[in-house]
Amino acid sequence: MAHEHDPCEKQKVAGIDDDSSETNGNILCQDMIASEILSRLRVKSLMRFKCVCKHWKCLIEQDKHFIDLHLTRSKTQPSLLINVPHNVARNNFLAADLLFEGKTVSAAVHTVVEGAEKFANLFPVSGIVNGLICLLSKGTTNYSKGTIRIWNVSTQEVTPPIESTLQSRLLQEVKGPYRSTCSLVNYAMGFSPATKEHKVIFMWQQVDPSPRYKFNYIYEVLTVGDNKWRRIHEVPQYSIVDYIFSGAAVYVNGVLYFKTNMLMEKTHNSDKFIVAFDVDTEKFRSIRIPLFILNSGHKDYRIELLEVNCCIALVTRNSGHTFKLWLYDKENRGASYLQNWCEAITIKLPDYWGRAHYHKFYSAGTDRIISHYCPGSYNNKVKNGSLHCFNLKNKAQENIQVSGIPKSVANFSSAIGVTTYVESLLRVN
C-alpha cells in the first residue's frame, strides 16, 4: 500500500540514516526552535518566509499548533486598523503596530490595503475576532441585502460573498396584496473556543403591513467555512438595538454581548438588561444591570459595552470628560446580580478635548484601552490628537501619534474609523 505523502512531513537530512534517533531528535529540536522564533514574528514577515522552504510554508499555512501559538503571542501585541475612504465606493485600511515604550505610545503604519474591487462597498466593520473581520456589503441602496465577506487583516485573505437567502424565501412565502418587508438591522461575529469555529449572527427586522404594522425580529447564524445560514428559533427575551451602525455587540471569551433598546433611553427607573449570545450553544440569555449603574452616568450620554481584561464591561459617562468602567464577573455565580458588577476605574480624558458628544473605546490588550475622541456624533474622523491610550493599572494616559502614513494615502485626515485587532494566520475558509 503506497504511503500517502504528508505535505508537512519533516525534511530529511541528506547523507544521514533516517532511523537514527539522534538525527530525529536534532530535526525535532530544529523544528521547535524554528517554531519558537517564527511564532513571534509579524505576519507580513511570515508571508515572505513561506518561500524559504516547503516545510516552513506548510508550518505557516497549515500547522494548527503553530497557528494557535502565533495567535496567542499576537494577543500581547495589539494593532490598530484605521479606515480611510478612498472614494465613494471604496476604502483604504491602514494597519499599524501599537508600540508601548515606557510612557510613550505610538502607532506605526506597516501595511496599506488600498481600495480594490473585492472590498468595494464593504462597510461598516463589526468587531474583529482573532484577526478576522466580518465585512458587510452595502449593496446599491442600503444594507438590507445581507451579504458578507470574512477578511483576514494580516494575510489579506478574503472569502467570496456569502449571502443570506432569507429575504427571497420570505417573499415566496407571503401571498396576497400585503407584502411584508425584511431588512438587516444588526450583525456580529464571534468565536467558539470549544469547537474552534467562527460564527456570524444576523438580526433581521420583518415589517408586516396587514392589518396593522407589526414588527418581528428574525435571527440567523452562520458557521464560517460551512457558509450556510441557519434560523435561530429561540429569540432573546429583550429586544437588541436594531440600528446597524450602533456598534451594539462586543465579543468576550465565546460570548457576544448586545446592547438592548431599553439602554438607549435617557431615564432609568428600574433595572435593565443586556443580551448575551453563547457562540457555541447558539443560545441567548439576559444579564441584569443594576439601577445604581444605570443612574451613575449623565442622562444625555448612552451606556456603551467594552471588553476589558477578558470581561464584559459597561462604560458610563458622568460628565464631559469623566467615564466609569463597570466590570461583570460571570464566574461569581453564588453572588446576587448586584455583586456581579463592580466599579473598576474612573477615566478622566484630556480637558482640551472639550465636551465632545462622541467617544469610542477599544480594548488594547491586558490593562490598556484606546479612546477615540470625535468632535460630534457624525464627525468621527481619526487624526493625531484624537487617539489616546489609557493604562488601567497606573491610570496613565498618552496621546497616540500615528507615523508611517504613505504619501499614497493623501486623505488620512478623512479617516472615519479606528479599531484594535491582533494579527492572525487563521484561514477564512
From TrEMBL:
Instruction: Enumerate the spans annotated as F-box associated beta-propeller type domain.
Output: 121-411
Against Gene3D superfamilies, the record matches this protein to: 1.20.1280.50
Where, by residue number, does the polypeptide cross the bilayer? Answer: none
List the Pfam families. Answer: F-box, FBA_3
- Name the domain of life this protein comes from: Eukaryota
Domain F-box stretches: 35-64
For this protein, the record's PANTHER family field holds:
BNAA05G37150D PROTEIN-RELATED (PTHR31111), F-BOX ASSOCIATED DOMAIN-CONTAINING PROTEIN (PTHR31111:SF138)
Q: What is this protein called?
A: F-box domain-containing protein
Where does this protein come from, organism-wise? Papaver atlanticum
Q: What is the lineage of its organism?
A: Eukaryota, Viridiplantae, Streptophyta, Embryophyta, Tracheophyta
